[in-house]
Amino acid sequence: MPQVAECPECGNPRPLFEQCPFCASKESPILAVDTIEINLKVGQPLVEEAIESLSTHLRNASELGIKAIVLIHGYGSSGEGGNIKKAVHHALESNYFSDRVHEYYFGETVPYGSHAYHALIKKRPGLKAYLKRFKAGNSGVTVLLLNAPGVYA
Hints:
Elements: E1 5-6, E2 30-31, E3 35-39, H1 47-64, E4 68-72, H2 83-93, E5 101-106, H3 115-123, H4 128-131, E6 141-146
Parallel strand pairs: 3-4
Antiparallel strand pairs: 1-2, 4-6, 5-6
Helix pairs in contact: 1-2
């Protein structure tokens, strides 16, 4: 994984949303990218926990100036879409995150090489490294384009 952030105090690589493990600085990191990947499935959270985690990540990412998020919510094993996926889609379609999310694209609508894919890459070139993995689209992923920092709907 490429370095995403650098500590402004000690210059070491550091986590994006946590304090620096080298000098314990809580200052906002210096970003090396404008696109990040967030996996909501880590730890097998309940739906409510996943939505709360997404809300926190969106707030933090927006404050740091992240422009795009590749959100992994999974598809679920039922064959009809998992509960986290359904909750994320419902929240987006209901404008629950409209204060932070400018546009969103469900993974199945942006298969690699499609017209929608090229239009999205033109808007956010940093997504190319992530989306090229999804040759036929991926219904377990949603792409979020964030509002500019300080711009809320």
